[in-house]
Every structure is written in structure tokens, then in C-alpha cells.
Amino acid sequence: TVYESGPGTSTKVFDLAGTGTVTNGPTAPFSTSGYSESGVMYAPGKILRAGGGDPAQAQAAVIDMNVPNPAWRSVAPMAHARRRMNLTLLADGTVLAVGGTGRADDPAAAVLKAEIVDPGTETWRTVDAMAEPRMYHSTAVLLPDGRVLTAGGEPSPARLHAQVYSPPYLFAGERPTITASPASASFGSTFAVGTAAPGEVSSVALIRPSATTHAIDMNQRYVPLEFTADGSSLQAQAPANGAIAPPGDYLLVIEDADGTPSVGEFIRLGA
């Protein structure tokens, strides 16, 4: 099924079986204006939406569409009210809120400080600030090395400079390294991942490359993988089907016991 999760309080579920049906989905706790809020599926079927409105708001909410009776739940708000910002998945599964403004497309009200939310604890922390505003039509994409590129944005004059943000995990010590990985994997298959210390790996995940426009990256998703590891080998299990992870290119990322992610390696999933 396909879930339309915003920007209103009313949501819709699209069932593609047969000729297709549309039914009402769970009621969301807040409504925003078009192109103003951002959202991300931070795990299969788990969605975060935040910000939006005019003047901007800081509230955030999550939903788990995997349970029998999904319901939206308000979580801790951002530290800064912002609209037309971007929510970007980071290499460790946390989410970066970057850019936006407090009202309209006013650079005088731009939010330069970024924030990171941990979906596990549902708490936000404020991190470093950008040098210039990033608002409507700006972009923020995860790079394979774990940094985030942010660029563009209105109003005139156009924003011609880009900036690259280095998240805290890049300063946590030595990073694990993927020394070998397959170029492709079929759904449901098991594949080997080469790394110097397989027994120290705490997480294996696929991250869909970014495709950002109008404050939403509808392509991004973080897909944790089941895996087995011992002192000499690491074996990962590819997702069962395209409903969990649509066919295409992904970044394969491993994390060590401290939660520090590796540089991502591209892998093509499915046909």
C-alpha cells in the first residue's frame, strides 16, 4: 500500500490491489500549508513529519504503519520553528533538520542552526549553524562519506554557494571500513560484507540515495538489515521484497559497537 501522510490532518491510504481503492488514514495531530513541512521515513513504515506552517511551527509527530492500528503520536518539538527546511537521513539512522525560516521566505527570519533527532529517543539536539539561509527550493542530501551537502534556495538573489556539514559521528574516532561488498544483490539473498573486525559490527543498513525538492525527499529511506557476524565473516540478509526497499541503488553502511558508521558503498538491489 501507499500512504499519503501530510500535510493535512486527514491522511489517505492507497491500496493498489485490483483497480485500487482509497481509504481514510489515521488523523494527524497538526496541519500545515503546502510545501512548508518536511518528512522522512526513518525506518520501513515509520514516518516523521515536522515543521511547516506560516508562521513556522516547531512541532513534530511520528507514526508506525506496521502495527494493526496505526496512530499518529506527537513527539518532542524541534528547538527552532522552521518552514521549508529539509529533513535528511544521516548515515547512522538519525535525522538532520537543516535550513528553513520562521515566516514566509524571509531571510531575516532564517534558521541557521541545524538539529539532529534520534528516532530511538525522539529527542532533538541543536548542532552547528550554516553561513547563509537555505529556504524554499534548497536541497540537503547525504553524501556517501556520511557528510551532508546543502545548497540552493530562494529568495533572490539566488544562493550560489553550497556548504558541507560533518555530523558528530565523524569525530567519534576511527570509523569501520567496508573492504569488500557485492555490486548487486537480489531480494531475500544473503551476501558477504568484508570488514576488518566483523565481530564488532553492531548494525548493517541500506540507505536510499537522496532526491530532494520542495522540502521533501520522497526517495530517501533507511532499511536495517538482519546480519550474522563472527570473528572472520559478516553475512547480511537483503530485504525480502520491493515493498520494504524498492529496486534500485542504495548505500550499504555498517556501524561499529559505538554506533560510528562507515563510508557507504553502492549496491544495486533487485532487478
Describe this structure in words.
It contains no helices and 26 strands. The chain is an all-beta fold. Strands 16-26-25-19-22 form a five-stranded mixed β-sheet, with no helix packed on it.
* Helix content class: under 10%
How much beta, percentage-wise? 35-45%
Q: Count the beta strands.
A: 26
SS summary, helix count: 0
Provide the structure class.
mainly beta
What's the end-to-end separation, in Å?
Answer: 21 Å
Helix/strand order: EEEEEEEEEEEEEEEEEEEEEEEEEE
Mean pLDDT comes to: 95
Low-confidence stretches: none
Taking strands numbered 1, 2, ... along the chain, how are they ordered across the largest sheet?
A: 16-26-25-19-22
Task: Kindly provide the radius of gyration, computed on alpha-carbon positions and rounded to a whole number of angstroms.
Answer: 19 Å
Oligomeric description of these chains: single chain
Largest sheet, in brief, is: 5 strands, mixed
Q: What is the approximate shape?
A: globular
